[in-house]
Specification:
Chain B: It comes from Anaerovibrio slackiae. The structure holds 2 protein chains of 2 kinds. Chain A is built from 8 helices and 15 strands. By secondary structure, chain A is α/β, with parallel strands linked by helices. Chain A has 2 domains: about 110 residues, Response regulator (Rossmann fold), CATH 3.40.50.2300; about 230 residues, Phosphatase 2c, domain 1 (4-Layer Sandwich). In chain A, a hairpin with a 4-residue loop joins strand 9 and strand 10. The longest helix of chain A is centred in the middle third of the chain and has 22 residues. Chain B has one domain: 2-Layer Sandwich (Transcription Regulator spoIIAA). Chain B is built from 3 helices and 6 strands, in the order E-E-E-H-E-E-H-E-H. Chain B has a 4-stranded mixed β-sheet. The longest helix of chain B is centred in the middle third of the chain and has 14 residues. Classes of the chains: A alpha/beta, B alpha/beta.
Chain lengths: ~350, ~100
Amino acid sequence: MKKPVILVVHRNPEKLLQQIDYSLDNGASLHSAADGMEAMLKCQQLKPAIVIVDIDLPDFNGMTVASAIKDNKENQALVYLTGLEGLLENAKADRYLPYGIPYELFIAQLKHDFQQIQGGEKLDEGMENAIVQQYDCLVPACSREDTGGAFSVNRLLSPYYHLSGDGLHYTLLKSDADVHSDNKDGLYGFIFDCVGHDLLSYGQAMNTLYILKTYMWQYQAGVYETLDEVVKAVNREVLNNFVSATLIPTLCFFMDIHAQKLIYCSAGIPSLLVKYKDHSRRESISCRSYMIGYDRDVSWHEECLDLSSVEEITFITDGLNDLLREKSESADEPMAFAKHDDISAIFIKIFHDNK
Amino acid sequence: MQFITIKGDTAVLAVNGNYITTRVKAIKAEFNTARQNGCTKLLVDFQHTTLLDSTGISQLCDFRQLVQPGNFSARNAHGRVLTVLQDSMLDSWLIDRG
């Protein structure tokens, strides 16, 4: 495929050309012009997709050059004007970049425009289908009315970089009062985080979702008595049957609303935040345990939390936990990037005025 | 190399700042280079690492398997990195834990 042409108009273009070439992964055909006249001639000849014009040129003002390029209807180029300290009347360009603008901002804009010119970040059919499937699998929120007034449930799934390795599920069990059932009423659920954000991690996440659902149904039906047995069984399944090795930080839970208890079993990183009545802050409950897939010969422990004074429970993956810690007093150093992966969660609000 | 220094048969992996999803590809490439240069052991130095996400942990587990657990160790974990290692019981990797 023919590479889009970028023309750099600058007195000393070499350094800028190198930086652009590196930033665009050698994806553009780069050319330079040392003055305005050469720039206008090369525009006709090369039909560039992007022209970057520095204001300080030896023959003309860069604004004149940019405007002349924009005026010529033969040119379809996106025109950048750089090094601006002011703007002459009637100057034309598509991007006006002031003198001293951080290099990273310039490159970010250029990369964005370049991707648009290349047709944007088009996903292949497999990825498109997987995204639809991922969101089809997302369990709906439960309102207070759905649960008979005792609690409500909401959730957040992080879609970072097309496909998330995160997964979550919950099932609300409300027995018919007239029908005898051994199943305990309440909310059964889990949250996990397969590493990666691509079709491979998506495949692992879908398999993990299926396996965890299966074993949680068995727990619900009384095949497994405790959640640590569930986690151990899932660990065995993952180690025996997953094609590639993977680690799956997971947290499984059962909220017994009649008994006012939360039973949970943590396997690695996902955390549990609890907000008590009359407390403004959420308290993090320490969950020290191995991740699923780490080792065959490890064990887990089921824990129980009394809910009689709890207003909110939040199960979160590590990304959201890091973001929450960032805003807390315990953050030792601010993050130097905008983290937006692994920010999945299940939020449960408990209503104690329920009759 | 940006992340790995070779000291005899040991590759010392030190990530400045965030050991996260966006860096694992470059770290993997350097790790492979170190192995090709004869490194059979890996020491992870977390002194200047401020964040370790689940992808970073997964990569370290892969490296640990590749060099064999006995040839893998870590040190100087603190703050959020130490917390995440503790949460996932991986602080047993640390040779300098109390």
